[in-house]
Write a structure and sequence with these properties.
about 5% helix; mainly beta; binds copper (II) ion; six-stranded mixed sheet; globular
Length: about 725
């Protein structure tokens, strides 16, 4: 392994870095073990009517995130946060949650939302986690126009050398933000992609910024999006998606719920219990109760990126914006929608009695990211096996029913977490802290019979969903033909270790990539590979490699060459998991290096021509993985065998998904030329696909894709008219 000892020159630069870091507001971390549990109730997230036009303002305000008594007895601590506030007035009093509302939209009725960025400036923000942690050495939404990304390029050209000058400083100007509707079936202009950001002072915009024509008069800190809501009933959500800063904006609080209801679909039981959303997010705090991101206090510097950390893992767990809350339940059925809104933490969840440790009741999953399941799936902690825990990686949701019937009032249940972090082979969470998510307290019920939908009867939840994949065989469903197969890799790029003052620093991850390709698809010299398609969006050229055709079905085989699991998320579409299969990583990596000819060049794309099919008939520019596969294909877990927009891709495995670039409810036999969207799915910056570990997404584990529309397809949702 290459290793170098730094020169005096670099040591001086490092001293300069320390001096600059010293200017940041120092934060002393508060250990999670010092935070009291189950003191305050679960905040409820207000529902707002999405059949009317809405205004959501991004505001800075105080929330009572930490429990009462964390510092002084009986006093609720106050934490500076950001959030989406309904209306145009930012709160001046402390709120119970930083999270935005749950927008209840209706299928077929568009929701027009005016988003206003009122977050102010990084120079004056009270959210220290943001102020101290914006990293100018990663490719980010730099409002000061350094689109050439000099800091990032310097970091890449001189691996192992610490960034210098302004590259090592925190950002100090107007805060950029943009809103993405995660799981939303929306035109690309409304996707809220990473380059569609706009600043709070209205002066700076990413090159893919969009607002409804005619709304420019509202000012440059505003974007008006009119979502079509044509999709099936789904439990989606919205959150920030700013290039290279999403991890900080979401960490500060910019997320909310979005429910697409489908009252016209009479196959969905009418007696499902009302939804209680449960947004699970790990957080850390300083001794003043302020949000703490690891860069905010002395830490082992990553010399390549002074403030970015490969995976943020907090030491407390907040649900709906409150750390370790309790929730009172009557002995009857409840419907919860879990949202893993964490930066990097995976949860493996089950319920257990807090006193006698008896496991249960079971969690019945009734819906996945993008639609209802056909039948409820029982996740029984007593049963063992793969279905004993509800596993959610960042970005995933689960629509569930839990039946508390038969539990005596006074019973206390813990929602436990046993997922290792980083997932799946990191540290086991402590049973007294990160092994606990929240508490359910059983209180006396009314005694009236529970007439809500009973998942244990096995009754259907819907008319059977369209199947692209057959969950019993791990192959495409009968009658489904894939027009394209892609094999794409997940790669981690390691920095060079270095020695400073006799102390050895590991190089650490420099960036994490999909298909060994940078976000903008260009090489270090700014050129686009000949096998990529250069597209100019408002003067910025990006190299695209995924250009799927609307209506076509594709198989994506994602080859995970890293040591961690990654929740891979595709915008626009819901897809279906086909299977996962182990492969010989060592032998495949040898073939990969050989295909490169000499040494793999990090960030230069796949080793071979992307557009040429390999021996497995797959494009993507990678050696065929087929001959390196080992063992049987693993079928999806029953509760994953539905419409997903984010799915866990484990290390050492190839994960296969079936993606049709069309709405979910066209019959599987629909000819590609007829399976079209209501809008033209093309233009702007297109869509993106990425890892939903937000720290990874922020450091290049994301690629744009452009959908090629079906020519002449009828469109009922028209740009310039409807949005
Ligand atoms: Cu990742």
């Amino acid at each position: 392994m290459r290793r170098h000892t730094v020169s005096t020159f670099v040591l001086m630069a490092l001293a300069a870095v320390s001096a600059v870091m010293g200017q940041a507001t120092q934060q002393v971390p508060l250990p999670g073990s010092a935070v009291p549990q189950f003191v305050d109730p679960l905040p409820s997230l207000p529902a707002v009517d999405g059949t009317q036009s809405l205004k959501l303002t991004m505001c800075e305000f105080k929330s009572s995130v930490l429990p009462t008594g964390t510092f002084a007895p009986g006093v609720a601590p106050e934490t500076w946060t950001w959030g989406y506030i309904v209306g145009d007035t930012c709160p001046t009093t402390t709120r119970s949650s930083y999270l935005g509302p749950v927008i209840v939209a209706q299928r077929g009725v568009p929701t027009e939302i005016t988003f206003v960025n009122n977050l102010g400036s990084a120079a004056t923000t009270n959210v220290l986690a943001y102020k101290n942690s914006v990293d100018q050495t990663i490719h980010w939404a730099d409002p000061l126009g350094r689109e050439a990304n000099q800091c990032a390029e310097d970091a890449m050209m001189m691996p192992g050398m610490p960034p210098m000058g302004e590259c090592a400083e925190n950002y100090n100007d107007s805060i950029p933000a943009v809103v993405h509707l995660h799981g939303g079936d929306v035109p690309p202009q409304l996707d809220g992609g990473p380059d569609a950001w706009f600043t709070s002072d209205g002066n700076y915009h990413g090159h893919a910024y969009y607002t409804k024509p005619g709304s420019e008069i509202l000012g440059g800190n505003t974007a008006v999006y009119r979502y079509p809501n044509n999709q099936e009933m789904s439990t989606i959500w919205f959150h920030d998606h700013t290039l290279g800063a999403t991890r900080l904006n979401v960490y500060a609080g910019l997320a909310g719920g979005y429910l697409v209801t489908d009252p016209a679909n009479s196959s969905i039981p009418a007696n499902l219990p009302a939804i209680t959303p449960l947004v699970v997010q790990d957080r850390s705090f300083d001794k003043n109760g302020q949000l703490y991101f690891p860069a905010g206090a002395p830490h082992t510097p990553n010399v390549d990126h002074p403030y970015w950390v490969p995976e943020f893992l907090g030491d407390t767990i907040a649900v709906n914006g409150k750390v370790w809350p309790y929730f009172n339940v009557e002995p009857r059925r409840y419907r919860f929608v879990f949202v893993n809104g964490s930066n990097a933490r995976t949860y493996e969840m089950y319920l257990a009695n807090q006193v006698n440790k008896v496991k249960g009741p079971a969690i019945w999953q009734i819906g996945t990211d993008g639609a209802m399941l056909d039948h409820p799936v029982k996740i029984d902690p007593v049963g063992g096996g793969t279905f004993s825990k509800l596993v959610l990686m960042p970005g995933e949701r689960a629509d569930v029913i839990i039946d508390f019937a038969g539990l005596p009032p006074g019973t206390k249940l813990l929602l436990r977490n046993v997922a290792k972090a980083p997932y799946p082979s990191g540290e086991t969470p402590s049973g007294s802290t990160m092994g606990r998510i929240m508490q359910f307290r059983v209180i006396a019920g009314s005694g009236a019979p529970d007439t809500s939908f009973d998942p244990s009867t096995g009754a259907p939840l819907r008319a059977p969903m369209v199947r692209l994949a057959n969950p019993a065989t791990g192959t495409l469903a009968t009658g489904v033909v894939a027009q394209v197969k892609r094999q794409l890799t997940l790669n981690e790029v390691m920095g060079m270790p270095m020695t400073v003052d006799g102390t050895e620093y590991p190089g650490g991850p420099l960036e994490i990539l999909v298909n060994n390709t940078k976000w903008n698809g260009t090489r270090a010299d700014g050129t686009v590979r000949p096998d990529f398609t250069a597209i100019d969006v408002n003067g910025i050229v990006t190299g695209y490699s995924e250009l799927p055709k609307e209506g076509e079905t594709e198989i994506w085989e994602i080859i995970n060459l890293t040591a961690d699991a990654h929740p891979i998320h595709l915008h626009l579409v819901q897809f279906q998991l086909m299977s996962r299969q182990n492969f010989d990583t060592k032998k495949y990596e040898e073939a990969y290096e050989q295909a490169y000819g000499d040494e793999v060049v990090d960030g230069f794309g796949p080793p071979l021509d992307y557009t040429v099919q390999n021996a497995d008939g797959a494009v993507g520019g990678n050696p065929a993985v087929g001959r390196f596969l080992r063992g049987q294909s693993k079928l999806p877990n029953e509760n994953e065998a539905g419409w997903k927009d984010t799915v866990a891709m484990l290390p050492g495995q190839v994960t296969r998904i079936a993606v049709r670039w069309a709405p979910t409810d066209y019959p599987a036999s629909t000819p590609p030329a007829d399976a079209h969207y209501a809008f033209v799915p093309n233009g702007g910056h297109g869509y993106v696909w990425h890892c939903h570990i937000v720290d990874h997404e922020d450091n290049e584990m994301m690629r744009p894709n452009e959908v090629i529309p079906i020519p002449g397809a009828p469109r009922t949702y028209v740009q310039g008219v409807d949005y």
